[in-house]
Amino acid sequence: MTRSHRFDRYKLHVDTRELVNADGRKLRLGARAVSLLCALIERRGEAVGKDALLHAVWPDAPVEENNLPVQVAALRKLLGRHAIGTVPGRGYRLALPVSGPQAAAAQPESSAVAQRRASLPPSTMGALLGRDSDLAELRAMLSEHKVVTVTGSAGVGKTTLALAAAHACGAALRDGVVWVDLTPIASAALVPRLVAQALRIEATDDDAMLAALAGALRRRELLLVLDNAEHVLAGVAPLVRALAASSTALRLLVTSQVPLKVDGERVFRLEPLSVPHADAAPEQALGHGAVALFVDQAQAVERRFALTPRNTPRVIDICRRLDGLPLGIKLAAARVHLFGVEGLAARLSHRLELLRGAAQDVPERRRSLSAALAWSHSLLSAPAQALLRRLGVFAGGFTLELAAAVGADAQLDRWGVEDALEELVDHSLVAIDAREPPRYHLLESVREYALQLLAEAGEEHEVRRRHAQAVQALFAAFEEAYFTPELIEIEYSTAHTAEIDNLRAALNWCLAHDGALGVAILSVVAIFFESMGLRREERMWHDQFAPFVSKDGVPALTLACFRMRRSLVVLQARDRAAVELAASAADTFRSLGETVRLYFTLCYAAISSYNFLSVEAARKVLDELTAIEMPTWAPRLRSHGALAAGVVLQAEGRFDEALRTMKKANALTREAGEDPGYGPANLAFLYLQAGDMEGAISMAREALAGSKRGYEVAEAIALSTLALALLFSGRHGQARQPIADFFAVCEDKSIWERVHIAADVFALFAAGEGRYRTAAQLLGFSDHAYASIGNRSLSFARAHEQAKTAVERQLDTATIDACRAAGAGLGIPEVLALTLQTPDSDSTSPHAEQPLRGSAERQE
């Protein structure tokens, strides 16, 4: 009888040395290649050394060793490149399952022999950096549960962790560990046969294979590891189910990008390695797995590499941009000797092309990030593939609603999006953040790959438009609720603040492709920017989109909303355009019957009228908004009206009423559950306006103690108020620090317009120190600034007059005129330097001049 062996889709007749495919067609194969195949079959599952193979293929003739790879390459070309595996330093091994007389003749071995012959790869403990807690948790889970599946994204290190667990657990099990790598097979039907081959279990009938395996393992105290199962789950799941049901001692550990979803399965979702904060010191950074792995792998190719204070921030940045994925970190670190840390970081914008390894003893999909992601992508259904590439447009994550808005089309409805998203989560391509409601995100490497696929599919423009439209709709819904007169509880912190990156991405796209849509987005994000304290960023976006407001296609309501908010944006920069913008928006809201938006617009129109027109004009606007306001409106709306009323009342000199109204505005803001923001700073300034210096000083310090990120203008107001109150109180020496802090805030936050507004404070400070020429220059700077930024407040006007009086007492008219003319041309750096000079270093002041005294007595 002819002996034969079956491989995947092939049959080898040993005696006739013929290779036949599944259709019965004979394949041409040289005699040397057949001899090599027979030698590998006889020692299947083992690594066969080159000398043994050379003797088996060329028994009677000495040949060069390089003849062997030629025959191996011929077999791989015919059987598949994974059919024969290379074991570095040991030789080659047959990776395909084999059946036939040799297999049938094999008898179950003793547990000791089985453990020795188990195909457990060598331990890679050196590469298990940062996984100590994961390993301990996985071992504990294996001790308690029959079936454990390690899942995670491509390149996260599932196999490495499972291998470490297998070596750690093997010694405690009577029958040891059997490792089965499922990578070589493409058919799920071959899973039981490959496992049987690894276990040396006799089974020739495919239909009886599961039963034979279950019977053979029923009494084994064994850990069976099935590695890389995601592409053959249809074969792995029934096998695991049958084996788990038949044995109480057997443990099954599976690595897969996707859970098996069988009864009794426990899923161990492996997360990327931890990455330290950007400012971590070298010794702190090495305590995180991502950096420790990077350093270890870098030293493998460059023994002199070391983590230093200089390169640590860049190494951390590389690890963060690689999402803490071990595969990406290993591939990146392997190129440190070529590019250096800085050069490597600069090239990471092309990480999918850059990060490729040269190792030939690992599957192709582990040789690059791109290949690993392509493998994961190939396992997805068509709807999941479509959704993945579309999700790439999200920055900073997304909700289910946003995913549906962007991912759905004529072929993929909302329900289809939900199913596809679940598939992507199962395949570890989409991560779920631990919050409620759930929020999803792609790792940056996956996102880059998804965007690459999106461009290749020719969908990028349309999908990015849908993304921008979805962002606009999200914020429009909130803005509409905010402007609803009734009291509505709005949870902004969770539902909207997380979308800041998506908002920025949408605006950036609109800036280049659809200005009208960008205007529509900006028309509905006013409250968002306000609540986040991002007024300066809002102003930047408004400046960039201002040219688009005159374009066709912008609806009247959208345009009015944009102008309403822009009026406040330019008001903060003390731009006279605020008056015209507010008036234009108000006219549109009146014509459209938008009462609440009209009210909101008038609140800031009143302030701009006071700044740039007159107190009378401000009163007229305030009377209109007071007539509109309803006492039943939500506190958050009425707080804006109270703020406007407080400003107008203090301009009219009705300070007691103004204080009560400002306090009411703060109370309404807190009642609405919102941060008072500018409230304490505004109150401090109002105390200053009313002449209550101690009240101003106390409230300004309270405002500074409670200042929060994003309220830099409020911080600047509080500092200038504190400085001026101290000057008015005769405490000139104490004013230097808040003035220095004021300049520091303006410089750090780029709010230089506040320097122009507060210039009279600096003039009075210089005069108080006896630096009269400097004071005269700063008065000139202030006069020049206020020629374009509107009217001075009462307190700044008072400071201006006191400084002017002091200067005129000490300097002659010609000197004053020359100094003021010079001051009109000063830039911000010169103003800062002049203001903070010390008296003895001020070259503009005679040594004989004495500091100004008694300014508190001369104030009005």
Number of helices: 44
State the helical fraction.
55-70%
Q: Main beta sheet: strand number and arrangement? A: 5 strands, antiparallel
CA-based gyration radius: 38 Å
Shape: elongated
- The number of distinct structural domains comes to 7
CATH topology (level 3) name of the largest domain: Rossmann fold
Report the mean per-residue pLDDT as an integer. 84
CATH architecture heading of the largest domain:
3-Layer(aba) Sandwich
> How would you classify the helix and strand content by structural class?
alpha/beta
Low-confidence stretches: 100-118, 358-362, 843-860
DSSP strand tally: 14
Give me the side-by-side strand order of the main sheet.
4-3-2-1-7
CATH superfamily of the largest domain: P-loop containing nucleotide triphosphate hydrolases
Beta content comes to 5-15%
Termini separation (Å)? 121 Å
CATH classification, class level of the largest domain:
Alpha Beta
Can you characterise this structure?
- The chain is α/β, with parallel strands linked by helices and about 850 residues long.
- It has 7 domains: about 5-100, Winged helix-like DNA-binding domain superfamily/Winged helix DNA-binding domain (Arc Repressor Mutant, subunit A); about 105-270, Rossmann fold, CATH 3.40.50.300; about 280-360; about 380-460, Orthogonal Bundle (Arc Repressor Mutant, subunit A), CATH 1.10.10; about 460-555; about 565-675, Serine Threonine Protein Phosphatase 5, Tetratricopeptide repeat (Alpha Horseshoe), CATH 1.25.40; about 710-860, no CATH class.
- Helix content is about 60%, strand content about 5%.
- The chain is built from 44 helices and 14 strands.
- The chain has a 5-stranded antiparallel β-sheet. Strands 9-10-11-8-12 form a 5-stranded parallel β-sheet, sandwiched between helices.
- Strand 10, helix 10 and strand 11 (about 250-255) form a beta-alpha-beta unit.
- Helix 18 (about 380-390) packs across helix 20, helix 19 (about 400-405) packs across helix 22 (about 460-480) and helix 40 runs antiparallel to helix 41 (about 795-810).
- The longest helix is centred in the middle third of the chain and has 23 residues, at about 460-480.
- The model is unreliable at about 100-120, about 360 and about 845-860 (pLDDT under 50).
